[in-house]
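Lab notebook: predicted structure, single chain.

Context: the supervisor wants predicted structures on file for every construct in the current expression panel, including those that have not yet been purified. This is the next one on the list. No modifications to the sequence; it matches the entry in the shared construct table.
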Amino acid sequence: MKKSSNSESSKLDRKTIERNRRIHMKALCFKLGTLIPSHYVKPTKDMMSQQDQLDLAAAYIIHLKEKVEKLKGQKEQALRSSASNSTSNVTNQIFIASKLPVLELRDMGSCIEVMLITGLNKNFMLYEVISILEEEGAEVVSASFSTVGDKIFHTVHAQVKISRVGIESSRVHQRLRELIAPLESWDYLA
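Prediction complete. Output recorded below exactly as produced.
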């Protein structure tokens, strides 16, 4: 009698294990189906079977592998072309460095933005730019600078103190050019 009880118990254990395995596999298939982008799935009227979902996932994985290989090829080609252009890159960097400093002044009615790009060998202080703006009737709201490579980017935002009077941006631009004029060649945008 014990033998039949053990066999029934082991049958129930195997059934439970199999049922849990099927539930787990169904959950995994569902999760796999959600990982496939909706634009890749062709809409159908009826639900897709698990086999259809697996086939679609396999096709999508193959598509992704092909895409990765294509992108690797493009990367290698870009690296080869950039290596062959390295001498022209050095020439471009020298050209850009010779165009410094760059002064850009944007007059936006009641606000002014001054952007100044210089080399590391700048001969002025940021407070001098702020002083010129304040002398011309603007109140500086924010001023910042950042260094990237061998260039320093200065940005100053100012508002007109008296909106009726305004500010003469051409005069501000001229004074800023005179302040930074000892910095050799100029490229400016007014």
